[in-house]
Amino acid sequence: MNILFVCTGNTCRSPMAEVIALSLIENTGISISSAGLSAWEGSTASPNAVECVKNLGLSLESHHARTLTQNMLDETDLVLAMTKAHKEYILKVFSKVSDKTYTISEYAGEDSDISDPYGLDYAAYNKCAKDLTRMLESASVKWISIKNQKQQMFKGV
Question: Which architecture characterizes domain 2-155 according to CATH?
Answer without folding.
Answer: 3-Layer(aba) Sandwich (3.40)
